[in-house]
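# nightly structure sweep
# worker-07 picked up a monomer target from the shared queue
# config: single-sequence mode, recycle default, output format = structure tokens
# input follows
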Amino acid sequence: SSRERIGRAQRIPETLLLYTLIGGSSKGSGYVYEDDGITIEYQDSSRATSAVTYFNYTVSDNTLQFSVSAASSVFSTFPLIRTYEIHLRGVFPATSVLLNGVTIPFEPFNELIHGQDGITNGYTYDGSKLSIIIYIRQSISTLQSFEIQIELLD
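# output follows
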């Protein structure tokens, strides 16, 4: 029913999906605003009823640094851990991707169609969209920031 669909839309996602257009830019930033989706308590600045997660990137030579901040606050329905799917558009393929200094494996794009184990972090390249897609499937605390370092193909 339509009421059920609206109810799902009000839920805060367990996987945060970030799309960023890199193109020829050497730096950029953005943020995701989330609230409980039900009340108007976000209008009361004395209460923590919303959270903002910031992200930014820099590109220098063939290295792309992508950072995601800890959430600015939490509220009763905000997830304390979550997974991430990050799409970096307008870039060449990566030769390596590190999450907090740890290498994550490449997954051929056509193998993603058949599904993965849902547990292992990984990345792929979608040549039709000139996009690196990073799958952080191991939950990360929303109260911690994290860094992704990508070495791009020349």
